[in-house]
């Protein structure tokens, strides 16, 4: 990921464990544990819309009136600043929003790790759980991206 400071990758979760390696500049990372994902208002499954792996919530403008369940998740919010040379492990299913800090460009590399789908599935709304399992099943039949 290479971009200008101030860019924000919206709140989302990945279905695999990952590491974020900061090569230049710094990034502010807001994290939530996997068990609060449903309280973070993920988009519903819609093939022509926004991915169910993204939240409808803008952390810069949290709307507790529209999303009252956000209060539960907010209590588990963690924040860290990742500097050059540092690496952050982000577990599968952990929601995160990442913003470039400083006055210069930022550069980082992600590495994703093969992860058992059953570590993430229990934390998803039913429609997203079904889509995830269907996607992994289809991938296994093609011989790639399996959850083994």
Compile the SSE list and pairings.
Layout: E1 2-3, E2 8-12, E3 17-24, E4 26-32, H1 70-74, E5 78-82, E6 87-90, E7 95-101, E8 106-113, H2 126-142
Antiparallel strand pairs: 1-8, 2-7, 3-6, 3-8, 4-5, 4-7
Name the features.
single chain, 148 residues, alpha+beta, 4-stranded antiparallel sheet, disordered C terminus
Structure, explained:
The protein has 148 residues and is of the alpha+beta class. 15% of the residues lie in helices and 31% in strands. It contains two helices and eight strands. The strands form two sheets. A four-stranded antiparallel β-sheet has the order 1-8-3-6, with no helix packed on it. Strands 2-7-4-5 form a four-stranded antiparallel β-sheet, with no helix packed on it. The longest helix is centred in the C-terminal third of the chain and has 17 residues, at 126-142. The two termini are 28 Å apart. Residues 140-148 have low confidence and may be disordered.
Number of strands: 8
The helix tally amounts to 2
Q: Helical content, roughly?
A: 10-25%
The major pleated sheet works out as: 4 strands, antiparallel
Oligomeric state of shown chains: single chain
Distance between the termini: 28 Å
Q: Could you report the average pLDDT, rounded to the nearest whole number?
A: 89
